[in-house]
Amino acid sequence: MSELCPCGSTRSFDQCCGPLLAGGAADSPEALMRSRYTAFTKADIDYLVTTLAPEALEDFNREDSETWAKQAQWLGLEIRKAEGDEVEFVAKFRMSGKIHHHHELATFRQVDGAWKYVDGKIDPKPPQRIVKSVGRNDPCPCGSGKKYKKCCGA
């Protein structure tokens, strides 16, 4: 039996990311994200380049990516959310004896029918919750039609 896939899918490498790294097409942004993580664990920089959208190639530094991939000890991938063309993930790795967490909200799009990595927000924060204060004489936010002081504020 083949080794487990580094992406954490619990499937074998040959049944999971292996076919993608060999040139197959990912069927979803999550599958592409998993295969890109696996490419980092195997220092397959050519695969990382071929899975970038054209605009992402402009900022890609092959030498830095190769150094990172080879020097890191990859400890796991956690997919936190995959919706539409976005995948939120945390890649855990050890470098220079220290454990790091790379948390990103990655965006993907299809280019000529193949999913490609476009960009990502590092350490994404959830939208800030805005709380509006209610004055005593304002209508109650519960929708009763009464003043706040005569309803929920009593």
List the helices and strands and how they pair.
Blueprint: H1 18-21, H2 29-41, H3 45-50, H4 54-57, H5 62-71, E1 73-83, E2 86-95, E3 98-111, E4 114-122
Q: What is shown here, in short?
A:
The protein is α+β, with helices and mostly antiparallel strands and 154 residues long.
Q: Care to describe what's here?
A:
With 154 residues, the chain is of the alpha+beta class. The chain is 24% helix and 29% strand. The protein contains 5 helices and 4 strands; from the N terminus they run H-H-H-H-H-E-E-E-E. The protein has helices at residues 18-21, 29-41, 45-50, 54-57, 62-71; strands at residues 73-83, 86-95, 98-111, 114-122. A 4-stranded antiparallel beta sheet has the order 1-2-3-4. A hairpin with a 2-residue loop joins strand 1 (73-83) and strand 2. The longest helix has 13 residues, at 29-41. The chain is elongated, with a radius of gyration of 22 Å. The mean pLDDT is 93.
Number of strands: 4
Strand order of the largest sheet: 1-2-3-4
Question: Which percent range fits the helix content?
Answer: 10-25%
What is the distance, rounded to the nearest whole angstrom, between the alpha carbons of the first and last residues? 68 Å
- Rg is 22 Å
User: Main sheet?
Assistant: 4 strands, antiparallel
Report mean pLDDT, rounded to a whole number: 93
Structural class designation: alpha+beta
Order of helices and strands: HHHHHEEEE
Give short descriptive properties of this protein.
single chain, 154 residues, alpha+beta, 4-stranded antiparallel beta sheet
